[in-house]
Structures are given as C-alpha cells and as structure tokens.
Amino acid sequence: MSKEKRGFQGGEKLVMDPQWNKRNRKFAYVQTTISEEKNDYVSNIFIGDLIHGIMPFTDGENQTVSPRWSPDGDKLVFVSDRTKLPQIYVKDVNRGEAKQLTHCESGVRNPVWSPCGEMLVFSTIGTNPKVAEELVLLNVKTNELTPIVRECRNYHSVVWSPDGSFIAFSACAFSQPTTVVDVFILELETKEIRKLTNSNGFFTSTTWSPDGEKLGFVGYEKDNKGVPISRVWIYHFRYTELACLTSEFDISVGNEIEGDFHWATVNPGLLWTEDSEGFYFLVTDQGSNGIYYGSLDGAMYPIVLEQEHIYGMTMITDIHEAIACISKQTERVELYHLDFKTQERTKLQT
Questions:
Q1: CA 17, CA 187: separation in Å to the nearest integer?
Q2: Predicted confidence band at 258 (pLDDT cuts at 50, 70, 90)?
C-alpha cells in the first residue's frame, strides 16, 4: 500500500503543543481548525485530565497558542491575537476571565514562567530600529517589563534554571549568519551572557536538568560531510564541558519530518528524569518518529518505534507517562496517553 500525503483540510482538527502539569495532573493543548469564512487558521486551547476528560479553555475565531502552566498549576498563560497583534494573557484554570498582560506594539511570543511563578520571560520585536528582537522579563503582579537581552535575533527555546537565577536560550548573534544558532545563558543578577556553543552549527530545544547542573539541547555542528544529523548535546556546568552523547547514533534527534502539518510541531528537547541521570527524546528515522530513552553514559534505548508522526510530547517523567500528538499515515493527528511502563496507549477524545 502506498503512503499518501494528506493536507490539512477544512473541517479537520489539528492538535499540537501538549503541556502536562505535574502538580495538578491536568494537560493543555492547542486545537486548530480552518475557518472557511475567514479562510484562515483558528486555534484555541483545551484542557483536561485522564479521569474527567477534555473541555475548551478558550474560544473565538482567533489564533490562541502557547499554553504554559504556572508552577502551582492554578493558571495558564497563552498568546492570542484577539486584539490583532499576539499578546500574552493569563487565566485561572477554574474561574474568571483572561487578563491581558502585555500591550507590546509589535507583538510577543513564547512566554515561559519562572520557577517561583512571579515572572515570565518572552521574546518580542524590539522598539529600537537597530535591534530585531529582545528578551523581556514581565512581573506578573505589576505588569512591569524589563528588557534583558538585545544582542541577538530569533530567540527561542527559552528556559529558566531550576533555582531561577539563570535563563538559557537559543539565538542567532548579530555577528553570525542566520544559519548559525548558538545556545546562551544569562545570569540575571549580573546580566552576564555566556555562549555555550562554538558558532559552528545549529542548536535548539534547550532543557535544564532538575538538579541544575546540566543543560541539554539538540543540534548539529557543520562539517561539510553531507546532510547534518541532529544529535543530543549536554553542557555540564560543574566541569564547564560540552559533550555530544549521540556521536555514534545514526538516527536524527528531534522531529525533522517535513509536511503540511509540521509548521505546528513543537520539539520538546530532552525530557529529563527526576534524578537528572536520564532523559526521553524524539527521533526521526525513515520517515517516522520514535521515542528513545538516553542516559548520561551515552546508552540509548528505543521506547516507542511505530510508523507514525509525533507532533508534540509532554511528560511526567517520574511516572514514565506522556501525552503526545500522533498521526498514522492517512489518519489525522490525535491526542494519546502513553504509558511507557506497560507500553499501553489510550486515545484521548479530541
């Protein structure tokens, strides 16, 4: 049977960017449809849990994306263009209306909570014409904005250290072509920025280990030896050492499948276990995605290997379970609960 590539059609629903909160065990995700009236995408956020099912969290004919749980699990921030430009909103999970937190002239993207739940960091277009973008801190209580980084462009994969004293991010320095993306860390107290990679490749999907001693990311160094393969990289802060853990791994790390749906893909990077000694991650192999488990000694083990595409994954790693957006050949993208201990999967109503 030949594999047939399907486009995203009117009447279909695309689910993406799942986020599972460890504290309240609720998950959130984005559901996108095509509005025939507007001839454009319409996205809204849904929330649910494994016991009570799923319910809409936002509505309207807008594009509402990037749901992110507060550390206590009581609130979600998200980005919506309901006022034309994408701005950040916050809403209590159980009651109330959404509150707009930003009014930036050129819009915002990718809000990330601080571990204490009092701050957000996000990227926006800079107001200075010589600056393409900037990273900004937002005090959630006072709405005070503080630009913190203006030296780069194309900020993404922004993460806080577990103690809240550092922010790591991927970006392109102004001195480099846009094909070169490095990983940086910013110490918030001193405002010192340090580059962890060598400006010789493309690195993204940064995640901090729970113990704060390691930063994981995905990417490749350019070596002029054919098509580059994305690999797992770990920076050890204690030893100030960068190591590639999958140099002998002949499978590309992350989701690198091209297709009509994959503009929506959010690569989770390394999903660390609670002991900071291992991690789960996505791979791309022969036109499909799989899930592997890796350890710091370089051992890599397949967990899920099916003929399917995985558009996003979120985990509670101490119970070794995941929520993932998965499609199979001619089937649409659906939301699944995966139990890696029993190898069982359950389709969640979408």
A1: 28
A2: low
**Whether 122 contacts 135, CB under 8 Å:** yes
- Reported as a single tens digit per residue, the pLDDT across 283-332 is 998 889 999 999 999 999 999 999 999 989 999 999 999 999 998 877 78
- Amino acid (1-letter code) at residue 134: E
CA distance 218 to 216: 7
Q: How far is CA 259 from the centre of its chain?
A: 19
Taking alpha carbons only, the member of 54, 55, 41, 31 closest to residue 9 is: 41
Per DSSP, 292 falls in state: E
Which residue type does 26 have?
K
The Cα-based distances of 169 to 134, 136, 182, 202, 334 in angstroms read 12, 12, 8, 13, 30
Token pair of 156 as six digits: 């993404």
Instruction: Report the distance separating Cα 323 and Cα 239, nearest Å.
Output: 34
The answer to whether 229 and 244 have CB atoms below 8 angstroms apart is: no
Owner of token pair 């791994």:
249
Closest by CA to 128, choosing from 138, 136, 140, is 136
> What are phi and psi for residue 113, nearest 5 degrees?
-70, 145
Residue with tokens 């507060």: 70
Point out which residues pair with 236 in neighbouring strands.
214, 241
Report the C-alpha gap between 233 and 243 in whole angstroms.
Answer: 6
**Distances from the Cα of 211 to the Cαs of 203, 214, 215, 281, in angstroms?**
22, 8, 10, 19
pTM for the model:
0.91
Q: How far apart are CA 122 and CA 135, in angstroms?
A: 6
CA atoms of 168 and 183, how far apart (whole Å): 7
Dihedral sign of CA atoms 308, 309, 312, 317 in order = positive
Res 257: pLDDT: 62
**CB-based contact 262:312 (threshold 8 Å):** no
Are the C-beta atoms of residues 68 and 76 closer than 8 Å to each other? yes
Dist CA 87 CA 77 (whole Å): 10
Residue corresponding to tokens 């140099």? 247
